[in-house]
Amino acid sequence: MPTADARPDPASTPAGSPSVEVATVGETMVVLCPAPGEPLEHAERVAVSVGGAESNVAGYLARLGHRATWVSRVGDDPFGRAVVRHVAAAGVRVDLVTVDPAAPTGLYVKDPGPAATEVHYYRAGSAASRMDPGALADERLAGARVLHLSGITAALSASCRALAEHAVTDRPLPGALVSFDVNHRARLWPADRAASVLRDLADRSDLVFVGQDEADALWGTADPAAVRRLLPRPETVVVKDGAVGATALRRDADPIFVPAPQVAVVEPVGAGDAFAAGYLAGLLRGVDTVRRLRLGHLVAAQALGSSGDNAPVPPWAWFDQLLDAPVEAWSPLDLLSRDLGWSGP
């Protein structure tokens, strides 16, 4: 891991290592969480984990057999080392993570409540908030097929917003498809301030992921067709509607809707990242749009059934039997059952 403005350690990238397929860029933080259902103010102990949208996507892609690298910045502190170790353990390359000796690693704390879990962020002035367009200048990113980022990065600071704008406008990775997850976080910036920025970043990307609920909150778009009209330039816009399903709207093609399978929800955090990773894995493997959407749903199902931000994934044989299922078998698909040959690691 390089320190700020220093050359990376050559040992962190083994000689002859394969080039990256997917580069993701964004902040990952340490997560503190009390026991399920225990309010934070009464907690005597908390569990320590790691979470970040873009590293989550990279982690799922690595577990699915793709070469992913995560570009970011962490503090020169125990939290930063924990973050990098966690992301690397998923099989993601971390040699483009910069260590900043002058800024801390970001932190967020979960506060479980009777209706929902509230999240408290401690990320202002974090090392990742000091990223800028230079983060994507490294020659080791050459040849990447996909560059994935999210709207979270644009909310962190002026330099991070410049990084996001650079990624979608200047295309620093020639030939790479730019994938953008809107990922609006109201605690970082309210909808009235975020709406125009996120719309502009999305419309200059090639592939966009957005939840129907967040699109409605940001732009007042009531259905996938309205989202597509608002974002005319991307090759594909994928609109996710929670447990209902997801719609892919490609330019000059009819919309394709694939319903979501039934799944027991343990924790919804990270499911959108898992869906994006599944869809991108399908894109990288050259499967059709229906199978890309199915793969997104199936990987998201693993996240929904896990309490962590990055769940294990089944072997490809498990996916294959469902990706090729006839429509009449997919539509009522119930992953609550355990007769599909996968019950975890």
Automatic annotation (TrEMBL):
Q: Which InterPro entries match?
A: Carb_kinase_PfkB-like (IPR052700), PfkB_dom (IPR011611), Ribokinase-like (IPR029056)
Keyword check for Metal-binding, yes or no. no
The name under which this protein is listed is 2-dehydro-3-deoxygluconokinase
The molecular function GO annotations come to: kinase activity
Task: Give the family per the record.
Answer: Belongs to the carbohydrate kinase PfkB family.
One Pfam family cited in the UniProt record for this chain: PfkB
**Residues annotated as domain Carbohydrate kinase PfkB:** 22-314
Q: Which PANTHER family match?
A: 2-DEHYDRO-3-DEOXYGLUCONOKINASE_2-DEHYDRO-3-DEOXYGALACTONOKINASE, SUGAR KINASE
**Record's keyword annotation contains Zinc:** no
